[in-house]
Amino acid sequence: MPFDIYSTRAQLAAIELMPKPNSFLLDAFCADMGEVEDSRAIYDYRKGARRMAPIVHEGAGGVVMGRSGYETHEVGFCKIAPERVIDEPTISTRAFGEQLVGGMTPQERARHTLARDLMEMRDAIQLRREWMGEKVLTTGMLEVVEYTNEGAKVDTRLIADYNHTQRFIPATAWNQTGAKINDDMKRIVDIVYEGLGVVDKMIMAADVAEVVLSDEKYYKLYDGRNISMGEIATKYLGQGVRFLGWNSDGIEMYSISDKYVDDDGQLKDRIPSGMLIAGSKGCMRMYHGPVNQVERKGDTEEWRTYIKREVPLRYGSISGSAIKNRLTSCPTIVPFNVDGWCRAQVL
Question: Does pLDDT of 12 surpass 50?
Fold first, then answer.
């Protein structure tokens, strides 16, 4: 039997060979826990503070010490399923960047279009994952907009409210006279520590970074390892990310100027204006649930289940002279420790 390059199995193999799309915010705070077979993700919800051991009287035994309590919760997966259509105009018209004379045949153009569509749909799915992580970090909940096959908005669904209370608002905004940026940063770190978390990164909106780096009083307390010729030398890392250096506690600081088009069609900042997020790798966890889809096998159609991050599907319409390529992923994001990060509105 000849090898079918358009089969789900063949496309899965190709996808797994593709490099993983970049996502700075997720990589900084979210641990990828892989794929699970269950229809819902289970996570432990913990809140609490450090407890001291009891002192006992001479000659006495021990004193029972309670354990930090936690609750087990379940949360559903989000289904992300972008599609691209390859129709007759697509394969008969010169593709972007294709040479004018002696170009590809329609069949070659169809294969080229499929490969390009798979890469672009993977990037779009990763942008949605990044959006999910940003919503959990900045709002403490995951609320999504769902669509029909035709792209019409159906409803807004609350996936989970994690009751995140680790918030900080300074007594004086950082862009106002009398702001105490260094003291406020220390307090943000303490808030996370009190919640049994760790801070190794602070990631801030671009307008926050501008204020921080231009504050003369803070500049004197700044860790000067990347100060050159009397100026702070930031380093651009791509995707709108800049490394700003280390604060007085030795914590890495970054800014993000990246923007995206939200479900309402508006262009929005990756991190909301005036906000700073402090935490560490693994304060959140991402799981991928099973992908269920109908596939044709011979003359029949049957359900197939894949325990994969992304699953392709190719199906066509003879009457419509078109082929659709779909890429489906079912991720969800949960906190490892709901008090393990702090969201600070400093402007």
Answer: yes
Mean predicted confidence (pLDDT) in 308-324: 80
Coil, strand, or helix at residue 198? coil
> What's the rounded mean pLDDT across residues 217-229?
62
CATH number of the 18-47+72-161+283-335 domain? 3.15.30.10
Give the integer Cα–Cα distance in Å for 132 and 125. 11
DSSP state of 45: E
DSSP per-residue letters across 290-304: -EEEEEEETTEEEEE
Tokens of 239: 């995707």
Q: What is the pLDDT of residues 99-144, one digit of tens each?
A: 554 566 777 777 777 788 888 888 889 999 999 999 999 999 988 8
- In the chain, what are the domain boundaries? 18-47+72-161+283-335, 167-282
In this structure, how many other beta carbons lie within 10 angstroms of the beta carbon of residue 87? 14
Mean pLDDT, residues 276-297 taken together: 90
Is the CB of residue 253 less than 8 Å from the CB of residue 244? yes
Amino acid identity of residue 270, one-letter, is R
Considering the segment(s) 167-282 as one domain, its CATH architecture is 2-Layer Sandwich (3.30)
Q: Please tell me the distance from the alpha carbon of residue 83 to that of residue 316, in angstroms, as a whole number.
A: 12
Residues near 213 by beta carbon (within 8 Å), at least 6 away in sequence: 219, 232, 234, 244
Characterize 101-137 residue by residue with b for buried, 16 or more Cβ atoms within 10 angstroms of its Cβ, and e for exposed.
eeebeeeebbeebbeebbeebbeebbbbbbbbbbbbb
- Can you say whether the dihedral through the CA atoms of 19, 23, 26, 29 is positive or negative? positive
Q: At what angle do helices 106-139 and 8-17 cross, to 10 degrees?
A: 60
